[in-house]
Write a structure and sequence with these properties.
Blueprint: E1 4-7, E2 12-15, E3 24-29, E4 33-38, E5 43-47, E6 69-74, E7 80-82, E8 96-101, E9 105-112, E10 115-122, E11 129-138, E12 144-152, H1 160-165, H2 167-170, E13 174-178, E14 182-187, E15 204-211, E16 217-221, H3 222-226, H4 236-240, E17 253-263, E18 268-276, H5 280-289, H6 293-303, H7 315-335, E19 340-341, E20 347-348, H8 351-357, H9 377-394, E21 399-400, H10 401-406
Parallel strand pairs: 3-21
Antiparallel strand pairs: 1-2, 2-8, 3-4, 4-5, 6-7, 6-12, 8-9, 9-10, 10-11, 11-18, 12-17, 13-14, 14-15, 15-18, 16-17, 19-20
Helix pairs in contact: 7-8, 7-9
Length: 418
């Protein structure tokens, strides 16, 4: 059974069937910020350390959830779906989609009920935050009113183990705020009135923001967003069309933002969601910088090599820098396959490997243009192997790009699922 193929010209792996035997993941990142995203938008993010810098929650050995979820709702019918096949999971005979994993970005296109969408997920070059660009086009013959919702589930503690286990403490130290088109999550937010650190702790702040449109409703509380006896596939906030403007204090926080878009036949709308670990002023400045998301995001994706031709002005540098990052990670993981032991006496799998790997070398834009190994098959093969080490370290059991590559029976064939 075929699920996808390598597009060598675009330097992308294309997944044409979303119901893959396991999540097929891509690595996004920069020296300061890392992210893992599957073909169904599951995955997590971290700052510097995959063990101690988690921003997005991800539950291992479960159902590739949660993740970077974007929901679309038809306000006339009440029907809703997601920009990735999951988590809503519409029947594949009426929902067509495709996922393209590129070098430093992932694009997901979907067509359902006369609406075409494209979600592009990436970390800009040398940046320490991530962007989810959403472009929606009305391909039907009628005017459509849609509610577009982005959802990010924050960890309550940067240490992934403490977030999952030490609930009495990790929930106690968190709260969310809504401020100028963004949800701000604070860890140790009760210390913000103190003049100095308390017990070597300080306030850590994350944000999830919307640009290109105004937020019509918001939610910072996971339980309120999902609703009792609901899940990520049918969250109450999406089903109702209103997130309820609810915030979290001493519970499980999230970032959920909705905007209503009215589209005439043939009309297109672009918005973007931004996510990162930034303070109040920094996050406000970032949202201001993305006021025109179509133009800004277009340049940034092109710089990563994600334009139609894969030949943006900085694409070569991006590929080599990210290839170096992944190859360094490959070497570090080979030499540090044991778990790192932190100052707290606990083991943190792979923390040192990721932190030391995040040191790409500077590469001149013109260097290596005539070298077939730079940006060619050998370079990509090494990259896919290194990405596999990273993903298997943090994502055991998931099929990643290098494993898919070695399984190829031909240029456009994958092995049958067993």
């Amino acid at each position: 059974m075929q699920y996808g193929y390598f597009d060598d010209q675009a330097r992308e792996y294309v997944i044409t069937r979303p119901d893959t035997p396991a999540p097929w993941a891509n690595y996004l990142g920069s020296p300061e910020y890392g992210a893992l995203i599957s073909n169904n938008a599951g995955g997590y993010s971290f700052v510097k350390s995959g063990a101690n810098g988690r921003i997005l929650r991800y539950v291992f050995n479960q159902f590739d959830q949660p993740g970077r979820y974007i929901y679309l709702r038809d306000n006339a019918s009440g029907d809703f779906w997601s920009a990735s096949w999951q988590p809503v999971g519409k029947p594949l005979d009426v929902y067509q989609c495709q996922c393209r994993h590129g070098m430093g970005y992932t694009k997901m296109t979907a067509d359902y009920c006369g609406i075409h969408s494209e979600a592009a997920y990436y970390v800009p070059l040398d940046a320490a935050y991530e962007v989810w660009r959403l472009t929606v086009t009305n391909r039907s013959a009628q005017r459509r009113e849609l509610t577009l919702t982005g959802y990010a589930e924050f960890t309550n503690n940067g240490n992934y183990e403490q977030d999952q286990v030490n609930l009495q403490y990790s929930q106690f130290i968190t709260r969310t705020l809504f401020d100028q088109n963004r949800i701000r999550q604070q860890i140790h937010g009760n210390l913000d009135a103190q003049e100095s650190d308390v017990d070597e702790k300080n306030v850590i702040e994350r944000f999830f923001g919307l640009t290109g449109a105004d937020a019509d409703s918001y939610c910072g509380d996971r339980a309120a967003f999902l609703g009792r006896y609901h899940g990520y596939g049918d969250p109450a906030g999406v089903a109702s069309g209103d997130l309820g403007n609810t915030l979290n204090y001493n519970g499980n926080g999230c970032g959920a933002l909705s905007t209503v878009a009215a589209l005439e036949p043939g009309e297109t709308k672009t918005i973007a969601f931004l996510l990162g670990e930034k303070g109040e002023k920094e996050s406000a400045a970032l949202l201001e910088a993305y006021r025109e998301p179509e133009e800004v995001c277009g340049r940034e994706v092109e710089a990563l090599g994600g334009d139609d031709a894969g030949k943006g002005p900085h694409a070569h540098k991006a590929r080599v820098a990210q290839g170096q990052l992944a190859q360094d990670a490959h070497r570090q993981v080979e030499g540090h396959r044991h778990d790192d032991v932190g100052a707290d006496g606990h083991q943190h799998p792979g923390e040192g490997a990721v932190e030391q790997a995040a040191r790409p070398q500077e590469v001149d834009d013109d260097e290596g243009q005539d070298d077939p190994q730079i940006g060619g098959e050998i370079h990509l093969g090494g990259l896919f192997q290194a990405l596999d080490f990273l993903c298997q370290l943090f994502h055991p059991g998931h099929l990643t790009l290098s494993r898919a590559r070695t399984c190829l029976a031909g240029p456009t064939a994958l092995p049958a699922a067993r």
